[in-house]
TrEMBL record:
Keywords: Signal. InterPro entries: Host-pathogen_enzymatic-act, Quino_amine_DH_bsu, WD40/YVTN_repeat-like_dom_sf. It comes from the Bacteria. Residues 1-23 form the signal peptide. Pfam families: Cytochrom_D1 (PF02239). PANTHER family: DIHYDRO-HEME D1 DEHYDROGENASE, PROTEIN NIRF. This is Cytochrome D1.
Length: 618
């Protein structure tokens, strides 16, 4: 499993069953282990490669009570692979042996499908998003997709079900929407000018822009514009009902369901920091330059308190308890702690090297430092008591200073563990740090791209109803599978059988396959290269042609890209000619609306260009 440990599940829902084309359900299966009943069901997709829905229901046999709060892990392995153990025996592995195999993170005995899967996304400087299977437990990583964006991104947010990702792009005034199952950009919405901060609330994406708010329906992608003047910052209530926004000298409270302004509260300052306290039921807005913090009651819409803070704060963020907020201040080399119960600053922590951002796990606050590679760690159980000293620790997250960061988080919690992922832009790395360690336990590069932010997208099992854990995952190959399930507490092991039937033949629109013809082993920087591609009908193996066949050649990292029409050759293939300007990694996509090859299709080719001097030496 990821990071070679059991607890690697972030509970994130899979795709909704109502949104998937499904085949007939597989009959439910029942097993009992240690007094716990496990019922397994599956709803295969109608088309091979689309998500199949998997569900496990856990029940106490003595009381009939559903087991809530469990963290099941599950895997699928082709039945014919389970024919020998590590000693070479031809006897099938027992259910417990299979669990031990997958928990041990054995590189040579990986499951075909891991129902605990999560992915790490990096928001890159080169107008792209990298999607990586971290494979930390196996000592490496795997690039699953590289999503090209029309322009540089500023911020991003996941929809509630984690099946859609919304990305703001200020320079192009657009919002890209990516499907996190297919890893494709499925839509691009024209928003208001300079869209930047984004939050999700009430099945809508709320985007701050220079004219107000652009509000996008998560399901239909319909756009609503609220022209209320330039918006600086956004926040949401934890009950799903309210959105908060700061203007030039005011704070707006909006109904997230009706998409309308409920109140416009004028404050004595320029509110550029914003955070909601679930404990106080108040929205806090700070004028960082003037050093004033305004506490606004969300029920009465009145300013409950004005708190003096040290000028220069760069962020205002509440800890998981919803009561204590941390404010990093690089000018003062300090982090102040606000108690929302008393509306007082109760602690001021000395943090050197310009603290600029803070992120939380359940146990610690992680503080990014602008001029150091070390991340400061503040124990959350030591904050909130006025005047109490706090034991601040740190760890090195790379070789170079971490820098400012951007709107999107550069430190995020790792799935279901006391651990974090940390972006070091200068290192071109994302590091994995487990709490209690002296240094990162691992990390991965971003395949030539320069990362600015990191995000975890989890497609693992999630408790959707009390005692029922489900997810949706594509099964690309039909056949018989063993389904292996394990729960650590209470300790439960269960195995089931599942057959995914081959898809029935149907008359459908042909699918186009892109095949690189005799791809060169290497490209040479500064030298022209001609790349040939065959476009064929997958079903009938026939070459396909259209007048709108184009290509995008894209270098990572950097901003170089070339888009243009392809030349059709006499043999029916298509040719792309370009000159890679520098040594590096190049991605090539073939596009054609007529042939169903969207700009965000997953059939990209990767080439490595080297310097001419290196080529001559070799």
């Amino acid at each position: 499993m990821r990071f070679a440990v059991l607890a690697c599940l972030v509970c994130v829902a899979g795709a909704r069953a109502s949104e998937l084309a499904q085949a007939s359900p597989v009959p439910a299966q029942h097993e009992v282990d240690q007094g716990i009943a496990v019922d397994f069901s599956a709803l295969p997709a109608a088309h091979i490669g689309d998500p199949t829905i998997f569900a496990f229901t856990l029940t106490d046999t003595a009381s009939g009570t559903p087991i809530s709060g469990a963290r099941p892990a599950a895997w699928l392995v082709a039945h014919d692979k389970n024919t020998s153990d590590k000693n070479g025996s031809n006897a099938p592995q027992s259910c417990k042996q299979q669990v031990a195999t997958y928990l041990s993170a054995d590189l040579f005995r990986r499951a075909d499908i891991d129902l605990n899967s999560y992915y790490v996304l990096s928001l890159n400087d080169d107008n792209s998003i990298s999607v990586v299977d971290p494979l930390f437990g196996f000592g490496g990583s795997k690039l699953l997709a590289m999503l090209p964006l029309p322009s540089r991104a500023a911020d991003w947010a996941l929809a509630t079900q984690n099946d859609a990702l919304f990305v703001t792009m200020p320079t192009s005034a657009k919002v890209a929407i990516a499907d996190t199952r297919s890893w494709k950009i499925v839509d691009t919405i024209a928003a208001g000018p300079n869209p930047r901060r984004i939050v999700l609330q009430a099945d809508r994406a709320w985007i701050a822009d220079d004219e107000g708010l652009s509000v996008i329906d998560v399901k239909t992608h319909a756009l609503t514009r609220l022209r209320v003047g330039a918006i600086r910052e956004l926040a949401t209530s934890n009950d799903g009902d309210l959105v908060f926004a700061t203007g030039a000298h005011d704070v707006l409270i909006l109904d997230a369901h009706a998409v309308k302004v409920l109140a416009d509260i004028v404050v004595d300052g320029v509110p550029d920091l914003l955070a909601y306290s679930s404990a106080a039921k108040a929205i806090y807005a700070a004028d960082a330059l003037a050093g004033r913090l305004f506490a606004i009651d969300v029920r009465s819409h009145a300013i409950a308190a004005t708190v003096a803070i040290r000028p220069g704060a760069t962020q205002l963020r509440f800890a998981p308890d919803g009561r204590h907020a941390l404010m990093p201040n690089p000018q003062q080399n300090a982090v102040q702690v606000l108690d929302a119960a008393s509306n007082r600053i109760v602690q001021s922590l000395d943090i050197s090297n310009a603290p600029v951002q803070v992120s939380f796990t359940s146990l610690l606050a992680y503080v990014r430092r602008r001029t150091s590679e070390t991340v400061a760690m503040i124990p959350l159980d030591q904050i909130g008591v006025e005047g109490r000293a706090v034991g601040v620790a740190d760890f090195p997250a790379g070789q170079h200073a971490l820098g400012d960061g951007g709107l999107a988080d550069s430190i995020v919690g790792a799935p279901d563990q006391p651990a974090v992922l940390v972006v070091n832009t200068a290192d071109n790395m994302i590091y994995y740090y487990k709490e209690g360690m002296a240094a990162p336990a691992g990390g991965f590069n971003t395949y030539g791209a320069t990362p600015r932010a990191v995000l975890v997208v989890d497609h693992g099992l999630r408790e959707q109803q009390r005692g029922r854990y489900a997810t949706a995952m594509p099964v690309k190959n039909p056949g018989a599978y063993d389904v292996v399930m394990f729960v650590d507490a209470p300790r439960v092991v269960a195995c089931f059988g599942l057959t995914i039937a081959a898809e029935k033949e149907a008359v459908e629109k042909p699918v186009t396959r892109v095949t690189a013809i005799d791809p060169p082993h290497q490209l040479q920087a500064g030298a022209a290269v001609r790349l040939q591609f065959a476009l064929s009908d997958v079903a009938h193996k026939e070459l396909r042609h259209a007048d709108d066949v184009r290509a995008l050649a894209f270098e990572a990292p950097g901003v170089w890209q070339r888009r243009g029409d392809l030349k059709r050759l006499s043999n029916g293939n298509y040719e792309l000619e370009f000159i890679p300007p520098t040594a590096g990694t190049y991605y090539v996509w073939i596009e054609s609306d007529a042939l169903g090859l969207a700009r965000n299709n997953s059939q990209f080719s990767v080439y490595q260009a080297i310097d001419a001097a290196i080529n001559q030496t070799n």
